[in-house]
Amino acid sequence: MTDTVIKLDHLEKTFGDHKVLCGVDLEVKKGEIISVIGSSGSGKSTMLRCINLLEEPTGGKVYYKGTSVTELNLSSYRASVGMVFQQFNLFNNMTALENCVRPQIKVLKRTREEAEKVAREFIERVGMSAYVNARPSQLSGGQKQRIAIARALSMNPEVILFDEPTSALDPEMVGEVLDVIKGLAGMGLTMIVVTHEMAFAKEVSDRVVFMDGGVVLEEGTPDELFGNPKMQRTKEFLARFLGSAE
Amino acid sequence: MNFFVQVWEIVVKYYPFLLKGIGVTMLIALVGTVVGLIIGLLTGIVRTIPLSKNGALKILQKVINAVIAVYIEIFRGTPMMVQAMVIYWGYAFMNGGSTLPLIPAGIFIVSINTGAYMAEIVRGGIISIDKGQFEGAYSVGMTHVQTMFNVIIPQVMKNILPSVSNEFVINIKDTSVLNVIGIAELYYMAGMIKTMTFQTFQAYTVVCVLYFIMTFTVTRILRVIEKKLSGSENYVVCGSQSDPKAEIRVKGGDSV
C-alpha cells in the first residue's frame, strides 16, 4: 500500500445540478505514468482539478500517500502535486526565470540563490535556457508550456498533473512539449496526463484510463486498451478518434 | 489692459499665499490619493478572499464584506464637502468642542473618500485578471495573500494606473471643497486675496490658471510613469551557439 501515491475513492463533483464526476475510483502508484483519455465533458479535467483541490470534491475522497488530502496542509500538499495547465498560466508580471524562482522562495522558503540554481537546472532541462529573461507575452505557446513545466518541476513535486498540455498549442509546437514530457519519464516522477494525443498516450504511459460520463469506464496498459478494448464505448471512442486522425 | 495688470499685481504681491496654497493642496491630494489607494488595495484583497468553510470565519467574512460595502456606498453617495463638515464638526461635537488639526483632518477626509472609489477600481482590476493567474499560483502552493502580493496586485497596479492617476487629478481639484472647514489650500487663499483686494474676478482667475497648471503637469508626469511601467519591449536571449556568453537583444511584442 505504501507505494500508492494518489488514490481516488468514489470521487464526486457536482456543479449546480450538473453532475460531472459520478464516483471516480483510481489508484496511482509511485513513478507511474497515467494517461487519461475520453471525450470532452467526460470529467477528465475536473478529476485532475479535484486532485489538487482547485475544485472541491462534493463527494468521495482523495488520498495522498494514504492520508485524506483535506487533512493535509493545503499549501505544502499543492507544492508536492504540481500542475501544468492547458493555458500555461505563467505569471505575466514575471520573467521566465522569476516564474520558476518566486514560488520556491514563497512556498518552500528556499533562498534566492538556491531557488535560482534549481530553476536554471530545470529550465535547461526543458531547453529554454536562452529565454530566462523573456516575459510570458514574448514567448510562443510551446515555449510558455515548457517554462510552465520547469516551474512545476522546480517545486520538486512527487506528482505532476498535466491538464491537456498541448491542446492550446499550434500543431507544430505540440511535438516540442510532448518531447519534454517524454523526457521526464525517466525521473521517477508520478505523472497523470489528460490528453487527446493518442500516439503519446500509447508510447509513454504505463497505464491508460478511459473516462466516460464521469466515471472510469476502462483502464489497462496501452496495449490492452488500444489493442483490445472491452467496453463498447471505448471501442466507439477509439474508432472515432483514431479514424479521424488517420 | 487694466485686468491683466491687476492679475499680475496679485501674483507678485500675494505669491507667498499662493505658493502655500499650492503646497497644501498638493500635499493633501497626494497623500490622500496614496492612502486611498492603500485602502482600496486592502479592501480589494479582503473582498476577494474565498469564503471559508469554517462557519464562524465565514460569518466574520460576511460581516466584514458588508461593512466594506456600506462604507463604499456611503462615501461614494455623499458629497465630500458634506463629509468634511460631518467629520470635522462631528469630532468637535463628541470631544467637547476641541477640533482636529486642520491639515491632518483634510488628509483623513480625502483619504477615506478616495478609498471608497479606489476600492471599486481595485476590485474591477482584480476581477479583470485572468482566473488562470490565480490557479497558477494556487497550483504551486501559494496562499491567497501570497498570490495577491506576488502575482495579482502587480498586474492590477499596472492596469489601474490610469484610473489612479485620474483620481489624483480629481483630488487636486476637489481639495478646494476643504475650505469649508478652513483649510488654507489654494481655493481658500483666493478667498483671502479677494477680501484683501476686492478684486474677485482677478483673484479667482489667478487660482484657476494655477489649478490648471497643476493638473496639466501632473497628468503629463503620470503619463510618462505609465509608459515606463508598461515595461520594456525588449529582452535578452542568453548565449548563441557559437558564443555562450553572447547576449542577443530581441524586440518582441505580444506574441501568442
Write a structural description.
- The complex is a heterodimer of chains A (246) and B (256).
- With 246 residues, chain A is an alpha/beta fold.
- Helices cover 39% and strands 26% of the residues of chain A.
- In chain A, the strands form 2 sheets. Chain A has a 6-stranded mixed β-sheet with strand order 6-7-8-3-9-10, sandwiched between helices.
- In chain A, a hairpin with a 2-residue loop joins strand 4 and strand 5 (67-68).
- Chain A is globular, with a radius of gyration of 18 Å.
- The mean pLDDT of chain A is 92.
- With 256 residues, chain B is mainly alpha-helical.
- Chain B has one domain (2-255): MetI-like (MetI-like fold), CATH 1.10.3720.
- Helix content of chain B is 75%, strand content 4%.
- In chain B, a hairpin with an 8-residue loop joins strand 1 and strand 2.
- Chain B is flat and about 70 Å long.
- Classes of the chains: A alpha/beta (246), B mainly alpha (256).
- The A-B interface holds A 52, 54, 74-79, 82-83, 85, 87-95, 102-103, 106-107, 129-135, 137-141, 148, 151-152, 155 and B 130, 132-133, 135-143, 146, 150-151, 154-155, 158, 231, 235-239, 250, 252-256.
Query: What do we call the CATH topology of chain B?
Result: MetI-like fold
Number of strands of chain B: 2
Structural class of chain B: mainly alpha
CATH superfamily of chain B: MetI-like
Major beta sheet summary of chain A: 6 strands, mixed
Globular, elongated, flat, extended or rod-shaped: what is the shape of chain A? globular
Determine the number of helices of chain A (DSSP H or I, runs of at least 4 residues). 9
Helix content bin of chain B: over 70%
Biggest sheet features of chain B: 2 strands, antiparallel
Corresponding CATH architecture of chain B: Orthogonal Bundle
Total helical segments of chain B: 8
